[in-house]
């Protein structure tokens, strides 16, 4: 049976878009060259950092829209998959570098916090020379999403094919032909959700369209390596909120594990974990919260974020007919998944988007 939509990439973005489309009656096939949710979406810290003052301003409306969709997104995943995706923390303390102060305005979910108030919320906090914000911001463990999202998508009717790589896409009037490791597949439309690899898919347009092969939609996505480590606290109540500076973050899981991240590196597709990077992260973490110094390291990893030059996602139609892009979510793909799914469905159905999407257009000057 021919699918309405073929999606390349079974990370949080591909699967969330697939789930949204399948729930609304489309026949959707997701082609994942490895295992679903095993790349950036597995490697993430899981902060839903909609109010992080380090985010580009243009991200605010999409980030807040996504945050507003999160409760229903999580309950849908839990209902369909019968797996829990618990919220791990409900607030974050954001700090500046030493000697700096914030230039952002308070919002409904972001207020200034005096250093002594910050220390009341996080015991042993090193406040010297820093300013603080108190954020209403949830965090999740992406490993919970990794278990729930593929199961939920399958339950909603998505045809999820693992170990099937997409090589190229040929756009035709009214349809697409997708060349894969399992042979050619026809569909009504195609969405590139390949994360850090989105720029490597080829488009082969049929004459009389231009015949020169190029990356599909000229997806200007480059990998941004992130290294992380996890320490274990003997007493989980020692750290109950996310603690974040522009250089490092500490994300407690509620069970004693604290994720410390992350580097942001232009290192191609390299995913090695380097001791020097982990030591630098630990030193930055101990500088603001000394108890990490005596906690044992229990895990470390590296993942590849899909980065763009302006730090904004790429959401919309590609230059080829019937082809779409939903990628480039950089540091916020976990946060932005529900909104990405909603706006992509709107675009594909030809509706006016819920929020302005010009900043995320595939062919914006800063992007391609
Ligand atoms: C260290 C780190 C920390 C992070 N922390 C956070 C955080 O706290 N909060 C947050 O919101 N975000 C965070 N992120 C960012 C977030 O993880 C990403 O933005 C998000 O996971 C991107 O999702 P994706 O589905 O686009 O990419 P991915 O999860 O990488 O999925 C892309 C998929 O496409 C598949 N694929 C690639 N090429 C092909 C092909 N040719 N054919 C078929 N399949 C293909 C890959 O195998 C992969 O499974 C973090 C990322 C990292 C690395």
Description:
This protein is an alpha/beta fold and 368 residues long. The chain contains seven helices and 18 strands. Strands 1, 2, 6, 7, 8, 9, 10, 11, 17 and 18 form a ten-stranded mixed beta sheet that branches. Strand 17 (314-317) and strand 18 (323-327) form a beta hairpin. The longest helix is centred in the first third of the chain and has 22 residues, at 60-81. The radius of gyration is 21 Å and the shape is globular. The two termini are 35 Å apart. Bound molecules: flavin-adenine dinucleotide. The site of flavin-adenine dinucleotide has 43 residues, from helix 1, helix 2, strand 12, strand 16 and helix 7.
Provide the domain count.
Answer: 2
Helix-and-strand structural type: alpha/beta
**CATH topology of the largest domain, what is it called?**
FAD/NAD(P)-binding domain
Name every ligand kind in the structure: flavin-adenine dinucleotide
- Structural Rg: 21 Å
Q: What's the structural blueprint in terms of helices and strands?
A:
Layout lengths: L2 E6 L3 H12 L4 E4 L8 H4 L16 H22 L5 E9 L14 E4 L1 H7 L10 E9 L1 H14 L3 E3 L4 E7 L2 E6 L2 E10 L9 E2 L10 E2 L6 E11 L9 E3 L4 E4 L4 E5 L13 H14 L8 E11 L6 E4 L5 E5 L5 H16 L20
Parallel strand pairs: 1-2, 1-9, 2-6, 3-13, 7-10, 9-18
Antiparallel strand pairs: 3-5, 4-5, 7-8, 8-9, 10-11, 12-15, 12-16, 13-14, 14-15, 17-18
The structure holds flavin-adenine dinucleotide.
Flavin-adenine dinucleotide binds next to helix 1, helix 2, strand 12, strand 16 and helix 7.
């Amino acid at each position: 049976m021919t699918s309405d939509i073929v999606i390349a990439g079974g990370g949080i973005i591909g699967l969330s878009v697939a789930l949204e489309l399948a729930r609304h009656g489309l026949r959707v096939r997701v082609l994942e060259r490895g295992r679903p949710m095993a790349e950036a979406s597995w490697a993430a810290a899981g902060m839903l950092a909609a109010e992080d003052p380090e985010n580009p301003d243009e991200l605010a409306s999409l980030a807040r829209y996504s945050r507003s969709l999160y409760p229903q997104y999580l309950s849908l995943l839990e209902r369909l998959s019968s797996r829990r995706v618990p919220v791990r923390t409900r607030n974050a303390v954001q700090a500046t570098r030493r000697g700096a102060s914030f230039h952002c305005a308070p919002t409904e979910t972001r207020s200034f916090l005096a250093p002594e108030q910050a220390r009341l919320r996080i015991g042993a906090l090193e406040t010297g020379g820093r300013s603080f914000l108190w954020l209403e911001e949830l965090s999740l463990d992406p490993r919970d999403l990794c278990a729930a999202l593929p199961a939920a998508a399958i339950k909603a009717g998505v045809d999820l094919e693992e170990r099937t790589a997409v090589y190229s896409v040929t756009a035709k009037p009214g349809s697409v032909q997708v060349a894969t490791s399992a042979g050619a597949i026809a569909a009504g439309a195609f969405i590139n959700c390949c994360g850090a690899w989105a720029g490597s898919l080829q488009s082969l347009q049929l004459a009389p369209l231009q015949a020169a092969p190029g990356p599909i939609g000229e997806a200007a996505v480059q990998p941004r390596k992130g290294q992380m480590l996890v320490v274990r606290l003997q007493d989980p109540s020692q750290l109950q909120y996310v603690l974040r500076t522009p250089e490092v973050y500490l994300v407690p899981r509620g069970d004693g594990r604290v994720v410390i991240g992350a580097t942001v590196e232009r290192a191609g597709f390299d995913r090695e974990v380097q001791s020097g990077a982990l030591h630098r992260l630990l030193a930055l973490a101990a500088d603001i919260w000394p108890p990490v110094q005596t906690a044992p390291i229990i895990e470390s990893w590296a993942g590849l974020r899909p980065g763009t030059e302006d730090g904004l996602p790429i959401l919309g139609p590609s230059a080829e007919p019937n082809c779409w892009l939903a990628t480039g979510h950089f540091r916020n793909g976990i946060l932005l998944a529900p909104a990405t799914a909603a706006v992509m469905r709107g675009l594909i159905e030809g509706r006016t988007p819920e929020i302005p999407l010009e900043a995320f257009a595939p062919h914006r000057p800063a992007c391609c």
